[in-house]
Amino acid sequence: MDKDKEMSGKEDKVTESLVDKQESGMDASAEEKEQKPENTSEEDVNEGTEAPEEEEHEEESVDYSNFDKAQLLKALKEIVSQQNFMRGDSLVQEIKSHYEEYYSKEKELAQQQYLADGGDEEGFDFRGADEDREFFATFQQFKDKRHELIRELERSKEKNAQEKNLILDRLRGLVDGEETTHSIETIKKIQEEWKKIGPVPHSQNKNLWASYNALMDRFYDNRSIYFELKELDRKKNLESKLELCDKAEALSETADIKEAIRSLNELHEEFKHIGPVPRDEQEALWQRFKAASDAIYNRRKEYYESQREVFKANLELKVKLIERLEAFKAFKAEKIRDWNTKTKEILAIQKEWEAIGPVPRESGKEINKTFWGLFKQFFQHKNQFFKELDEVRHQNKEKAEALIADAEAHIESTDWKETSNHLIQLQKDWKELGPLPEKFRDSLYGRFKKACDTFFDNRRNANKETNKAFEENLAAKEAVCAEIEAAANGKEDVSPEHLESLIQQFNEIGFVPRKNMKDISAKFNDSVNVYLGQLDLEGESKDDFLFRLNLNKLQADPNSNRVLNKKEHGIRKQISDLENNITLWRNNLEFFASSRTADKLKDQFEEKIDKAEQEVDKLKKKLSIIREF
Prior knowledge:
5 domains, 78% helix
């Protein structure tokens, strides 16, 4: 459909769809016509109900030219309140046209006054009155409601098509099944259900109706035993169609041509769904119904002829819009913002185009082709710009794939700390990527996230296993502590060797959870002290044992090697200091003269040297003990 027809006459398409269904719904193939000769009249109905295309421009004759702005707003609100969104569009467009004349004049006067007061032409901004904003808001409400109703009608047509297909399936089962006494009743119910279903999409209507007629033919032809009932049914159908002829002829007295067309379409729909009539009555019946229909169509044609001046004015408005659109023909820009700005401008022109009513039919096709050709050309240039922009997105895609490959290469790594830092850096790099192609964005991120999540899940699971082992070590160390205390309290097996073996057993157990390290160490020391209290050790052997015991306890420290080295270094320093002092003291002895006072000092120095040498021996023994560890 031409764009101008689509915007100005959508409500008329509802009426046209009914006529279209009559045009195509009963157009059976030649083979089907031979099978159903009694349906000649119904096929003629389809040809006779063809509505002239001028129906798209059908409008009510209401003169709004003398209405002021308040009256136009009131008229618009009345149409909206009546929810006459389909058939009221032509009236609304006319109301809007008159209102915009007032609005444009007010704007022009305001601009002249603004310039007369010394204002700058570029700084002029006409906001209009509250009444203007209310009018255009009400007009937009009408358009939104009307578009929603059209979408609902299309959804309803699809649903009706599904329902008719279900009825056809039932009808096929009835036609192909065995004859029963209830077949006629069932077929009548199916006819009633079919008749009650509303319009279907135009593309499906012809096939649905042809299938329905063919199945009905088969039903009647294959069941000759019900011939008399069929003839009786045909006579009843004749009576019903004669009533429809009377109603169609009465429509010629209806003053409102739009209402007459609507009622005629309903009569055609009903005429089409009534079953076949006796063959000898078909032609005369159809000619009578067609004559009544032609009388209404002729009146409509005369009405549209009277509207040609309006259509010519609409044509002039559309020609001016095309001239404005020419400025967009060679537009080029390097920034998205510039393209978006021009897009808003061209879409505003499109709205103006859609608001203009129909044009003469002989000019409609060419003017639509010109307008939409320029419109399309602009968006082709815009698409080329974004195509080049897509190249940048493609480069970002290659960078993303490199990050994914890097992340996937570290999935199985067990170097938890270094790999964690590396993946965190990759995640930061990912955030700094530019836009990615829409088609691949989710899948690329999914792959990257999966690689990172897999590694961190592995690390989490490994930590769980380690923590479990630490808990088991803690329980084992607590058991050793309990054994040390029990042995100390029992006193039977108390011995240095036994204590050393228990300490060694404690030291051989692995790490415990970090939160329990201090507690288990304190508990261990307390247990060992309890045990030591039960040992009977004296003198040097006790000192050596305690020193060796402390070294054994150090084995449980993760930093035992460093601690032992530090302790060894400290002992060596003590030995060195003592040996230096001994040498110094020996040198000093040589300077003392022979006297009672000097002899007393010599004895003191000799005593200090003796104690120092004993201490050196003890330290060297400790040093030898350290080397055992």
